[in-house]
Specification:
Helices cover 39% and strands 17% of the residues. By secondary structure, it is α/β, with parallel strands linked by helices. The strands form 2 sheets. The protein has a 7-stranded mixed beta sheet with strand order 3-2-1-4-7-5-8, with helices on both faces. Strands 6-9 form a two-stranded parallel sheet. Helix 8 runs parallel beside helix 9.
Length: 242
């Protein structure tokens, strides 16, 4: 748990949900601190057998800007992120940034996301707005991603082109306007659900073009189950749209 002085010292919290990211996390954390020295990073680790959580504990012993929450097993990206969001609210952080822990998202894009929050409530690192791109994905993953985003726009009336990307900066005051308890999706489908709930609460969005790169180390956590879960969540929300 972060202490109460963390938010006053650094108003930006970066949340990383991890499972078996020991090969990626050390260099990513270093890169984040290089780009924004005053941020705090919270890692929510789902009992990684590769020692990710152990590395976090060792590093945080000498690095006050890093905190790790340990969970006993894989419980999903959504529930991990909600833990970090609750902490951001409780401790008075101004901004929370979510990003993948596998170097798919470049820390150098973080300042641009933060700067956009002067005018909006959520800045999304977008693969599909003009200037955005994807490198390293096979064709079937591109097709699935595009279909999910199309469903989000048509069924949920989301106004953004990339509703399934995890690289985002949120104003914490916007998160306070919704009930995090109401978010039922625990895996990747939370990405669409939280935007849907924020949009209904009047939140303003913008998209910042990024280059998304497929991971070079480790295995992807996305699978067919997650794709089906997304469609199920979008369908559930669409039926309760009114």
């Amino acid at each position: 748990m972060l202490n109460d002085s963390s938010s006053s010292a650094c108003p930006v919290l970066i949340a990383l949900a991890t499972f078996n990211e020991r090969d990626n996390l050390p260099s990513l954390v270093d890169a984040i601190f290089k780009v924004l020295p005053d941020v705090h990073v919270v890692v929510v680790d789902d009992g990684s057998p590769d020692g990710t959580g152990k590395w976090c504990d060792e590093r945080s012993a000498s690095e006050p800007r890093l905190t790790c929450h340990h969970r006993p097993g894989k419980s999903g990206l959504g529930s991990a992120t909600i833990i970090a969001m609750r902490e951001a609210i409780a401790l008075g952080f101004h901004i929370i940034i979510t990003m993948d822990a596998d170097w798919s998202h470049d820390p150098k894009d973080i300042p641009c996301l933060v700067s956009q929050l002067e005018d909006v409530d959520v800045a999304i690192g977008s693969r599909y707005c003009p200037g955005g791109s994807i490198k390293g994905w096979p064709r079937h993953r591109r097709i699935i991603s595009q279909l999910v985003n199309m469903a989000s726009r048509r069924l949920l009336r989301l106004t953004v082109r990339d509703s399934s990307g995890a690289f985002r900066a949120y104003r914490v005051t916007a998160l306070e306007q919704i009930s995090l308890d109401d978010i039922r999706a625990t895996g990747y489908a939370y990405l669409e659900e939280i935007l849907w709930r924020l949009q209904r609460a009047g939140a303003r969005f913008t998209e910042v073009p990024i280059t998304f790169r497929d991971r070079e180390r480790g295995q992807s956590k996305a699978d067919w189950y997650e794709a089906i879960s997304k469609i199920a969540t979008i369908s559930r929300l669409a039926m309760t749209r009114s």
